[in-house]
Every structure is written in structure tokens, then in C-alpha cells.
Amino acid sequence: MSLASMIQPEVVAQFYHAVLTVVVVLITIGLAVVLIRWVWRLIAESESPSVSREDLCDRAPKIWGKEGLWRALGALWVLDGLLQLQPAMPNYAFLEMVIAPNLLGQPGWVVRVMGWGIQAWSNALITADVVAVFVQLGIGLALLAGRWRPWGRWALWTSLFWGLFVWILGEGMGGILTGQASLVIGDPGSVLFYMASAGLLLLPDAMWLAGQVRRGVRWGVVGLWLWGALVQAWPGAGFWSGPALGTLFQNAAQNAQPLWLSGPIYATAHWVTHHGLVANGVIVGMMSLLALLWAWRPYGRGTMAVTMGWLGVLWWLGQDFGVLGGVGTDPNTAPVFALLLGTAAWSQKPLADVPALRFIPWFRAKRGAETLSVERGRRV
User: Which residues on adjacent β-strands are paired with residue 295?
Assistant: First the structure.
């Protein structure tokens, strides 16, 4: 059954009407809040001088890795919210093509928990999708606009709890209990990396500057690559069999997409199906090698190059970029993993010490290595 045949136009129309209604309500509330705040500030400033947001920003240390991860996480949540606006999402196509497949091979208690979630969603398809859209957009926009505001931290906590909800009910705990999990297709789930990112951002700046975040990410990466190699090599998963391993790539190739994207995936699936032993050996070997590299020379240029290259291969051939096919909910694991590694590599760099930024006219370093003043038209 094609995706188009599973989309009911009347349901889509009701969904977009509901979304538009919520947007109008939120805009109205937002304008009212802005007006109240403006009046309140006029009254407060007439009584006592206030500290501007710019002053607060200047006093806070700005760490390149943390700043980048904060904004990237916000952008990812916004993207996820926008993807939930696709026509298939308020229809049963979303449940049948995205959620239901995650039930396969799960323990009984996971099936029951996920079954409850699927039933609740199916009882209110439009309402559930509207909630998902605005929760994710809300998290993302709050992060992007609230870096130095209380609601920024609230958004991080919401990201943790919403991420846990999605990871269990939507991703089936990343397939880790099925016995057939594979990093090739994005297990243990991209939202787990969203949660890890939010957790790191909640840590104090001192832990970033002291290198604790950098070290923690390093050993987490070692553990993840070792886990990936282990589950890929596990005989019970069946990946040493060509047809079973080839299925991972065939599923990605079958998404609706241009031929120039699907062609290499089909070619890979064909080769893997006929050379399963060699192909799985290469995959297990690469993950084992990456675990050794991250234990031996973490964040080295060679280590980062090999890691990013391998993640790029997996993102295309195994995860099909995550967002294609009309039912994609996120970019999948590889780019979020790469983002986490990239920001961790700069986790001890105050923004003023990043060489590339010295050529941006409106960045000027001051107050040693921990603070930065943003002034347009000034060069370092």
C-alpha cells in the first residue's frame, strides 16, 4: 500500500485547521504577554535601574562547544516539529509505518507499554499530532530564544522528559531489547542523543571548562562503539547472513526519494546480500576500530575524520538521511551523534579562543579567556 493511499484529505484539512487555530491563539497570548512585560518594565525602570540582557550575557562565560550544542539542539527540535506537519502524520500512516514496526521482537512488557501509547494516539490522531508539533516547536524555539533566560533551562528539562516519552513509546527504546538492534540503522535512537545533549547543557560551565564534559563524552563514545560492534556481531541478530544484513539497507532504499539517492543504497543492499560475511565483518571492524581510536586518541584529527566519514556513510546508506519518505520524524542518529562529538571537541574552548571567529568583524575578545563582547563593526 502506497503512502498516498493512506492519507485522508479530510483528516489533513482538519489537522491543518487545528494547527492554524493553535497558532492564532499562541500569537494572541504572546502579544498580550509582550504588552504586559513592556508596561511592567516601564514601571520597574522608573523606580530603579535594571541590568540589561546584554550585560548579563557579557558576564557569563561563553564556551564554543556549549553555545553550538545549545543552538543546534534547538534547531533540531524545530525541525522535528516541522516534520510532524507532514500530511501523513495525522493519519494512520504514521502509526503503521513509523511506530508499529518498532514492536517487532520487543519483550512483552514493552509491547504492552507501546500498545497503550499507540492506542491512545489512534484514539485522537489529530489532537496527538498537534500536541507533538507544538511541544517540539516549543522546545526548539525556547532553546533558540532563551539561551540566557530561565525558559531556556525549562526547555532543556522538557527536552529530557519529552525525549524519554518519545524514546519509549515512539522508538521502542531504540530496539535495544529486540536482539536485532544496529547502529547502522540508527539504534539506539536519535532522541537518546537529544536527551544526552540536554543533560550536558544542564551541567555548569565549570564542568565544561574543566574538561569533565569532554572526558565523559569520550568514554561514552567508546562504550557506544563497543556496543555497536557487539550487537552487530551477535550471532542471534543474524547479521552475518547476507539477506538479513541486506534488509537493513533495502528498507532505507525503499523510502520515496530521488533515484540518485536511492541508487547507491540499492547497490549496497545488493552487494551486502551476496557478501554478508565480509560486509558484516567490515561493519564490526570499523566500529571496533573507532572504539580503539576514541580510547587511544580521542578528538585527534585522524579520529575525528574517520568518525565523521563513517557516520556520513551510515547516515546515507543505512539511515537514508532520516527525513525522507514523507514520514521522517528526525534526521536520525548519525548527524546528532556527529554534532555531539563536534561540540564536545570544543567543550573547553571559550568562544574568544576559537581561531575561526577572529576573522568575524563583530566578535571582540575581552575579559581574558572566558567572556566575549559582541560588537558589530569591530575586529579582533
Answer: none
- Calpha distance 60→67 (Å, rounded): 12
177-189: b (≥16 Cβ within 10 Å) or e: ebebbbbbbbbbb
The reply to whether 283 falls in a domain is: yes
Q: Residue 188: is the preceding peptide bond cis (ω within 30°)?
A: yes
Nearest CA to 91 among 22, 7, 165?
7
Question: pLDDT digits over 219-246, tens only?
Answer: 999 999 999 999 999 999 999 999 999 9
Position 58 in a domain = no
Tens digit of each residue's pLDDT (9 = 90 or more) over 76-117: 999 999 999 999 999 998 999 899 999 999 999 999 999 999
Find, among 8, 144, 1, 164, the residue nearest to 77 by Cα.
144
What CA–CA distances, in Å, run from 145 to 62, 139, 140? 16, 10, 9
In a domain, 356, yes or no: no
Q: Pick the more confident residue, 171 or 361.
A: 171
Residue 51 lies in a domain: no
What is the length of the chain? Answer: 380
Give the separation between CA 280 and CA 178, rounded to whole angstroms: 19
Is residue 175 within 8 Å of residue 197, measured between CB atoms? no
Query: Domain count of the chain?
Result: 1
